[in-house]
C-alpha cells in the first residue's frame, strides 16, 4: 500500500496544510477584491452625500446675477452646476430647439406636474452685449412642440429668467441620433444645439439655464422640471460587499477546518 492509498485522515498534517495553499490564495484574492469594492462604495457614499448637500445649498440659495461673459470660460460643472442665477435678455423663439424628455415620476405621481413623453424647449436668450445663453424654458408634451400650438407662451420683449445653471452631459452609448434639421436632440450637447440654432460659438455660454417654475402665459412650457433627486444606495452596496467578504471568511474557515481534519 502506498501513501496515496492511505485514508485522508492518516496523511501527514503538513500535506493537509499544503493542500490549503492554492484555495487559500484564491480566497485571499477574492477577499481583497470584496474589501476593495466595499471601501470604494464608502468613498462613493461620502462623495454622493457631499454632492447632494452642495446641490441643495446652491439650488435653494437666493438667485445671483449671471456672471459676465468674460468669466464664462472659467466656469465649471464642479463649481457652478445647479447654481441659481437670474439673467435678462430677449428670446429668439424662431431658433427653439427641443430636448427629448420623459416627465413625471411613476413612483410619485403629481397631478400638478406634467408627465409622459415630450420635450424641453431650449431657446436662445440674447443678452444686452449680444451674447447668448440657451435657456431651458421647460417641458411641453409631444403635441405642443410646435410653437404655433402655444403662441401665448412666446414672450416678446425684455424678460428676466431665474433658474439653475446646467452644463452639457456626455452622450450615452445607446442615445438616439439627434435630428439637427428639426433641432430635436436626445442629449444635452450644448455645442451641437447652439450650432443647430445658428448661434456663434464664441458668443454663446458653454452652459444653459433651466428656468424655474414661474408660470408662463398659456401654461406652456412648464418650468421647474430640473430633477434634483439623486440615487444614493452606496451604503447598501458597501454593506453587501463587506457582507460577502465576511461570508467568504466563514466559508473558508469551515472548509479549512474540515480539510485539516482529513475530511
The helix count comes to 5
Whole-number average pLDDT?
90
Order of helices and strands: HHEHEEEEEEHEH
Largest sheet: 5 strands, mixed, barrel
Radius of gyration: 29 Å
Strand order of the largest sheet: 2-4-5-8-6
How would you characterize the overall build of this protein?
The chain has two domains: 24-62 and 230-263, no CATH class; 83-219, no CATH class. It is 32% helix and 21% strand. It contains five helices and eight strands; from the N terminus they run ααβαββββββαβα. The chain has helices at 13-18, 21-60, 77-80, 190-196, 234-260, and strands spanning 64-65, 84-91, 97-103, 116-126, 132-141, 159-166, 184-185, 204-211. A five-stranded mixed β-barrel has the order 2-4-5-8-6. The radius of gyration is 29 Å and the shape is elongated.
Topology:
Elements lengths: L12 H6 L2 H40 L3 E2 L11 H4 L3 E8 L5 E7 L12 E11 L5 E10 L17 E8 L17 E2 L4 H7 L7 E8 L22 H27 L3
Parallel strand pairs: 1-2, 3-7, 5-8
Antiparallel strand pairs: 2-4, 2-6, 3-4, 4-5, 6-8
Helix pairs in contact: 2-5
Question: Concise description?
Answer:
This protein is of the alpha/beta class and 263 residues long. The protein contains 5 helices and 8 strands, in the order ααβαββββββαβα.
Which key features would you list for this structure?
263 residues, alpha/beta, 2 domains, 5-stranded mixed β-barrel, 5 helices, 32% helix, elongated, Surf1/Shy1, transmembrane helix, membrane, SURF1-like protein
